[in-house]
Amino acid sequence: MTDEAHGAAAAPPAGRTTDAAPTVNGDIAAMDSVRVDKWLWAARCFKTRGLASEACAAGHVKLAGTSLKSAKLVRRGDELSVRVGDEQYIYLVTGLSDRRGPAPVARSLYVDKSPPRPEAAAVPGMLVRDRGLGRPTKRELRDIRRVRGY
Fold it and tell me: Which of 49, 80, 101, 123 has the lowest CB atom count within 10 Å?
């Protein structure tokens, strides 16, 4: 009988190794760079990798003031500036991963150096309405437009 019949694994074809790419949780430290779109997705900055790639293409992801393409490699110590909607975030890359994991693991991939958000009341032109009042009346909408200047 052959080794395969007894349950022994066959040797890999010539030129191939059985080692997997260093993306398993224990081997993340072995990675020295990863694509920026994969990192943004793994760090949970974007919900999908496609959205991360679109943000790169639109120029919303910058490294040292320069826009990045999604295939650009990011390394530990890089400082990324990411715009998501109206928010601007600054991340210092402390870990690398190309797999999306749980939120606590994702938070360990970066240090958030973003400036604090302004309070809602401190933003000029913001009118605060109590929750649960329903849709504004026509008169209230006119007042809101007058305060906001449009």
Answer: 123
Sketch out the chain's domains with CATH numbers. Answer: 15-116 (3.10.290.10), 118-150 (no CATH)
Pairing of strands 79-84, 73-74: unpaired
The residues, ordered by sequence, that sit 6+ positions from 99 with a Cβ below 8 Å of its Cβ are 23, 42
Q: Encoding tokens for residue 73? A: 């490699």
The SS3 of residue 4 is: helix
Residue 93 burial by Cβ neighbours in a 10 Å radius (0-12, 13-18, 19+): buried
Predicted structure pTM score? 0.61
Residues 35-68 have pLDDT tens digits of 898 999 999 988 888 998 999 999 889 988 888 8
Does residue 22 contact residue 28 with C-beta atoms inside 8 Å? yes
Strands (E), 29-143: 34-35, 61-63, 66-67, 73-74, 79-84, 87-93, 110-112
